[in-house]
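Memo to structure team: turn this sequence into structure tokens by end of day. - J.P.
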Amino acid sequence: MARTSKFTETEQQETVRNWVNSNETAAVVAARLRISVATLYLWKQKYVPPVTAPAYSQASLADMQARLDNMRLANERLRNLLRTARATVDKATWDKISLAYSKLPTVGSDGGSATKET
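Reply from structure team:
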């Protein structure tokens, strides 16, 4: 005979939704409800679909790899340019350039504007 839960399906779903949207640990939530951590994770498995990585086609992966290779090449060219500039510019001028550069806004990893940390 299967055990019946003291919580309805709706209560279980609400508990899981509140837990995953909070900063509480599974142990804290489970203790408050007087259930085991394993039960809480079973509810999560039952009611929250697993997160899966997006599927990419081989052509898309090849395109991303080509773009990455191009960015790495451009980055290396910029590094070489900076090495050459640093070797040919006196220290005082270089310090002024570095200070001006540090005040420029940068593009964040999400594509939005971010401030440059010094």
